[in-house]
Design goal:
Number of domains: 1
Helix content: over 70%
Distance between the termini: 46 Å
CATH class: Mainly Alpha
GO biological process, one term: siderophore-iron import into cell
CATH superfamily: ABC transporter involved in vitamin B12 uptake, BtuC
Largest sheet: none
Pfam families: FecCD
Family: Belongs to the binding-protein-dependent transport system permease family. FecCD subfamily.
Protein name: ABC-type transporter, integral membrane subunit
CATH architecture: Orthogonal Bundle
Structural class: mainly alpha
Radius of gyration: 22 Å
GO molecular function: transmembrane transporter activity
Length: 349
């Protein structure tokens, strides 16, 4: 009979639960990736004209120039890729903002980033005559970047706190949307051109837009993932974070840069889309707990699941027309958010 020392037995018992939690989280992430692949396939196959999966495969890997292949390669594939990228950007931006502000209700709109993009786009349309989506991208990104710097400065810069950042963001949000509404009322042509963009849509996706926003999203994703451990310290409170050796000013500045890149590129590509960056981190936190090192990858996978799923639903409910994805996410996100905040367990996270 082999004897095990009490100290060794206690060590094995203590280490078993963390290993099981890690295994469950890893398994859940793999399952989530499988769901994402299924949703992506549905996004390519489902539309005004349903396309069987064998023809989808043919259009992707054995392109022959037929009408079906053109629809798959030139219309639905760019739309699906852009949906994946935008979903990742919005999910990570929402998770970072919630950790940065220690506010589970925070999303990119709380810091005024969507308002900055909208103000820049309406200015470009009304005063500079910009009419193309590829033109909107750069102005929307510029507006998001300018607002992020402004909010960080108004929030105290090096002495910024979560409350100051949230208050500064809401003040900027109110001012900019007042400006946007004024311009649209005075310039009906700008209103007509803005209407489609502001509702949030993937319908105008093309590979040019994908190529334009991909570098910004890639840098933002890498930066957000690298900030996971530092954001865990921020969530414990300023005093505790400093005691653990965390540089709060650097973490907040880098977090604002990551959010600007992610939210700016996503909003520039398809307009402001509500609830994705708000709902998904809530769901993820229930699965993984408060550890940002797991929240971030889960949010990066499940956010495009929600976005692409909403886009597919929008194509089905009004076929052969379609309902824009921003409208669908609002319909889905509103009741779901009410359900989440009413759950006692979620309110405690």
């Amino acid at each position: 009979m082999t004897l095990v020392s009490p100290a060794k037995a206690g060590t094995e018992t203590a280490s078993a639960p963390p290993r099981r939690r890690t295994a469950r989280r890893a398994t859940g992430l793999v399952v989530s990736l499988g769901v994402l692949l299924a949703i992506a396939a549905a996004s390519i196959a489902i539309g005004a004209k349903p396309i069987p999966l064998d023809q989808v495969w043919h259009g992707l890997f054995h392109y022959s120039g037929s009408d079906t292949d053109v629809v798959i390669r030139d219309v639905r594939l760019p739309r699906t890729i852009l949906g994946l990228l935008v979903g990742v950007g919005l999910g990570l931006a929402g998770a970072v903002i919630q950790a940065l502000t220690r506010n589970p209700l925070a999303d990119p709109g709380l810091l005024g980033l969507n308002a900055g993009a909208s103000a820049a786009v309406v200015s470009a349309i009304s005063f500079l005559g910009v009419t193309s989506l590829t033109g909107y991208v750069w102005f929307a990104f510029l507006g998001t970047a300018v607002v992020s710097v402004l909010v960080y400065a108004l929030g105290g810069s090096r002495s910024a706190t979560p409350v100051r950042l949230a208050l500064a963001g809401m003040a900027v949000y109110a001012a900019l949307y007042g400006y946007v509404n004024a311009v649209e009322l005075l310039d009906t042509a700008a209103l007509d051109k803005m209407r489609f963009w502001t509702v949030g849509s993937l319908a105008s996706a093309n590979m040019t837009v994908v190529r334009q926003v991909s570098p910004f999203l890639l840098v933002g994703v890498v930066l957000a993932v690298l900030l996971g451990r530092s954001l865990n310290a921020v969530a414990l409170g300023d005093d505790t974070a400093r005691a653990l050796g965390s540089n709060l000013n650097r973490t907040r500045a880098l977090s604002m840069i990551a959010v600007t890149l992610l939210c700016g590129a996503a909003t520039a590509a398809c307009g402001p889309i509500a609830f994705v960056g708000l709902i998904v981190p809530h769901l993820v936190r229930a699965l993984t707990g408060p550890d940002m090192r797991w929240i971030l990858p889960y949010a990066a996978v499940l956010s495009p699941v929600l976005l692409l799923g909403a886009d597919v639903i929008g194509r089905l409910v009004t076929r052969p027309a379609e309902l824009q994805v921003g409208v669908v996410t609002t319909f889905l996100g509103g009741p779901l958010f009410i359900y989440l905040v009413r759950r006692r367990r979620m309110a405690q996270l």
